[in-house]
Task: structure prediction
Amino acid sequence: MASIGIVITGASGKMGQMLIREILGNSAVHLVGAIERAGHAWIGRDVGAVMGGADVGVQVSDDALAAFAHAGAVIDFTAPEASVEFAALAAQARIVHVIGTTGLAPLHHAKLDAAARHAVIIQAGNMSLGVNLLTRMTQKIAAALDADWDIEIVEAHHRHKVDAPSGTALMLGQAAAAGRGVDLAAQMVSGRDGITGARTAGSIGFSAIRGGDIVGEHDVIFAAMGERVVLRHIATDRAIFARGALKAAIWGQSQKPGRFDMMDVLGL
Result:
């Protein structure tokens, strides 16, 4: 397969820069575009130089559609409203759109579904192999244990993360709910405070920790009288998410338009 041209949105962000570095070191792909919002200080400058290295021949731009026209895929770790806009443009360009953005609401998903009628969209709350294995195990264990087992999901991230629970925590919650055959929205309990009363049987609880430079930690706790089962994933390097996103961008080249996730990419 020929090298695939990739556009990175949110190029100045931590994930944007991580993705660019991974692309520059991967012979299967090459960088054809780096997108930032209008007025950003990086606009018009070589993305390699503004990242503190040598020029790479790609200038940062605020014209996403022009960049998409020369690409095979766009990788997008930005914000929900921006991702929806990029999805429409990626669909227009008929390129693969890999979305790692978290905090997506039902309205955003509906717009992504519409865009996926014309292009491949691969969206996941977490792009790592380990987390997706954890998700599958969560579903299987939830299916095997009855409602006497309480389910709690505890997640920890760096101080700058703006949404809670994390996209990964919600993905794990969805897996637990699917294993039990229930609707997560009806069973979800998040952010307990004050006199909450006893736990409701069958509920799925979420707790969020924010501090320092924590990359990402997720525990799924199954607790019954006298025993607990704890599943845990700890991320120590954001590069795992970048590598997963690149794997998704490459995999998507051979797919027909539609919505996919990392379970599809990894064959899980």
